[in-house]
Structure formats: C-alpha cells, structure tokens
Specification:
The protein has about 400 residues and is α+β, with helices and mostly antiparallel strands. It has six helices and 20 strands. The chain folds into two domains: about 140 residues, no CATH class; about 190 residues, no CATH class. The protein is about 35% helix and about 30% strand. The longest helix is centred in the first third of the chain and has 46 residues. InterPro entries: TMEM43_fam. Belongs to the TMEM43 family. It is found in: Endomembrane system; Endoplasmic reticulum membrane; Nucleus envelope.
Length: about 400
Amino acid sequence: LQQFSDTGSRKEHVKITSESKPGFLERLSETSGGMLMGLVTFLLSFYLLFTNEGRALRTVKSLDEGLSLVIPLDSIHSVSQQNEGRLVHLAGALSTTKPLFDPSYGLSIQAVKLKRNVEMYQWVEYEESTEYEENGEIRKETKYSYNTEWKSEVVNSRNFDREIGHKNPSAMAVESFTAVSPNVQVGSFVLSKGLVDKIDNFKQLSLSNLEDPHADVTRGGDYFYHSENPRRPEVGDLRVSFFYAGLSGDDPHLGSADKVTVIARQRGDQLVPYHTKSGDVLQILYLGDLSVEEVFQKEHESNTMKTWALRAAGWLAMFVGISLMTRIFYTLVDWFPVVRDLVNIGLKAFAFCVASSLTLLTISIGWLFYRPLWALLIGCLSVVPIVVAKSRVPPKKQQ
C-alpha cells in the first residue's frame, strides 16, 4: 500500500508505504541469511588480521634493507655506471620536455599532470525515512526532496522516486580527462610510471590570465561556464575547472618547479622499482628535498598507520560477523520488549568482548608465525610474574 502527500512544492514530497508485520518464520529465515553472511565476514576478518601482520613485517624488513643499501647521488645531472642496478637517493626539480595542452580552452602548462574537471548542474534527490508500527502494520514514511547542484558525475534521474520536473541529461557534452606528461625527469633521470603516479599534489589552476575560448563559453572566477547566465544556471549547464600536479618549469604566475625526493633503482638513466629480498618493492617519491633518513622515517610511519588501520578494520569485520551470527537469539525473544532490549545489549557486549579477544589472539598468532623470536620473548616475559609470585611463597614446614 502506498500513499502520497505533496508539500505544495515540486521540490519535495512524502511517500508512505505499509506492509504487514513479518511472521516469526519469515524473520527467522531472514536471520538465517544474515548468519551465513556473518560467518563469511567472521572468517574473512581472520585472514585480514593474520596477513596484515605478515605484510607489516615484510614492509619493515624491506625498508630496513633499503636503508642499509641506498646510495645518495652526488649529482643528478650525470648518470654514473657504477650505480647501475643499485638503490639510489636523489632530490631535484621536476622537468618535462613539452607543456601539456587543452586546445579546446586554449590552455597550456608545464606540469606533470593536467586535469580537466567538468561539472554539470543537475537535480539531486535526498531521502529521509522513518519507520513506525501502526495497527499491526509496519509503516515507512519517506520524505523526498530535490535540489540543484554542480556534480562531476551524471546523476541518473531515472532512479528518482519522481522524475517528472527533475529530469537530468543522460550525458555531458564535454568530458573530464587527465593528461600526463610522457617523459618526466629529475635532472638526467627519467621517472618510472609508478613514480609519476605518486605525483598527485593537485592544485586548482587560476584562469584569471586567460580569455574566453569560445563565444558560448564565459569565464567566471576559475571556471569556464557553458551557460547563458552563469549566475543563474539551468539544469544541463556545464562549468569547467583545471587542476595541475607537479609543476615542471618556472612559471611567472605559479612559481618555480616542484622539487621531489626519489628513492628507486637506477637502470641506465631510468629510475625503476627495486625488488627487495623480502619480496617487496621500493619506489618512493615525496615532494620536497628530504634526506635518506627522513624518507625512510616517513615510510615507517605510513606502514604503522596502515597496519593499525587494517587491524581496526579486522576487528570491526569480526564484531559485525559475530553480531550477525548471534542475531538469532534476538529474533527468538523479540516478542517481549523488555527481554528483547536486554538481550540486544548483552549480544552487543558479547560481540565486543569476543571480537576484541579473538583479534588480539589472531595478531599474537601472526607474531608467532612471522616473528617467532619476539613471540617467544613475550611468552617468557608473561611467565615472569608467576615465577616471582611462587618464589615469595614460603616453603612448607617439614612434618
């Protein structure tokens, strides 16, 4: 059953749906499906937690290996054959052979990357739902509201609850794209694609020094508008902005070329990935002029943050999995409100405690598998309090 009510504005309406309350067997069936999903999530959390410890250790070993082998280059303007195949450290300004162009808008810049970002003025649907029980039925009241906004992706208005009056075009007349310089260098060394991918310090390009490229395009601030009136755009109008990353030449408006620090393997005049004995890959790039120690410190910090983030994700997956698997107990008592609420609190507490314990246990097993000496040391330390306590107990008097 559906009921509609309009608020008087074509930008907002409310829809009310109602359905009979599901029976016990139906709810039990839904819970069984959730239990299966919970079991899968629960098992995946073990895999995530265990492999994360191995990944973290492998990264640490690779970074330590890299730090012990890396060679700082004396000059970035000459290629020494003595360093062929070795891990090298260098810092210098980015350079590219040719500027990047967007002929459609008469724009060029000496940079590693140039991104054209196209947005279209479109209808966007928002919904707010509330559920309540009435006359033995579950009623759902959904409020739909519509607003016009600039969006980088096409919003499919066919999925709107009410498309009439809120119809969007199916495609953009102008497409977004990112141009990447085919040859990026630091001094005499050419950067690999993996290193170029790490240059992502995008900044918006000021268009104040450019003219309007076409009669039907108007510049306003740092945007080109495909609109009759940019101050009062209509659905379907476009606006275009530009972003650049890795300035690779001195620019009177933008300043000097960006400096980067690179650690990678030298292969001829190219800087390529270095494969460590631990099975990891080192090809590191940071903006700015950094020492070898500063680079590896940043990498260790990044590895630590990633390790803890994945540990938290593993714990959350385990908590959700346990909650879904134990949901059946809530379903069995949900006819009794007081009991149901108590059981719900108890199940959440149970899931929290078990997930925390199993997460710590899995991480410790990972340490035992990947770091046996550390695990053995921790095991020995755990026995110390017991030994100390027993040593303080006086021996029994001889009978």
